[in-house]
Design brief:
The longest helix has 28 residues. The chain is an alpha+beta fold. The strands form two sheets. A five-stranded antiparallel sheet has the order 1-2-3-4-5, with no helix packed on it. Strands 6-7-8-9 form a four-stranded antiparallel sheet, with no helix packed on it.
Length: 157
């Protein structure tokens, strides 16, 4: 066997290894933006806590009306978290879980409803946070802030 086929095989292996390493480095650099779930992944305790929460008890305006629709955001109480009180907020466009802490309100997770997608997210922590869902029935926005240690939906300007 001559040198040329051996050099060609070695070059091919080196190129393949380099391309694989560059691809892995790119995925690592981008992180969860490419491979993760928007809003994070909940563990079993968080899912059980969300499923065990009572039915919505507070109704607050929380969506941008479109095409004659008047959707609302509803909030359901959840057990307090370590850094503050958590509440789940729902619109026709999706659901968000928020908590209040010493640095302000923070979106813990969010999930669009079927047929909707997340257009924009400001997860905080800050004085105000928001998430916008866009789908077939228009755009639905949740704007949240803390009232004391409790997250609440705020009306839109």
């Amino acid at each position: 066997m001559g040198r040329r086929p051996i050099l060609a095989a070695a070059g091919w292996l080196a190129t393949t290894a380099a391309a694989t390493l560059v691809g892995l480095a790119a995925v690592q650099l981008v992180g969860t933006g490419i491979t993760g779930t928007p809003g994070g992944v909940r563990d079993q305790r968080e899912v059980a806590r969300a499923l065990a929460s009572p039915a919505p008890v507070t109704t607050t305006p929380g969506a941008v009306p479109t095409a004659g629709a008047t959707p609302t955001a509803t909030a359901a109480s959840s057990p307090p978290a370590a850094s503050g009180s958590e509440r789940t907020f729902r619109t026709a466009g999706g659901t968000a879980l928020a908590e209040c802490g010493p640095t302000g309100v923070r979106l813990v997770s969010w999930s669009p409803a079927q047929g909707y997608r997340v257009k924009e997210v400001d997860r905080g922590p800050d004085d105000h946070v928001e998430v916008r869902f866009v789908g077939p029935e228009g755009e639905h926005e949740l704007r949240l802030r803390c009232r004391g240690s409790e997250p609440v939906a705020t009306p839109h300007d």
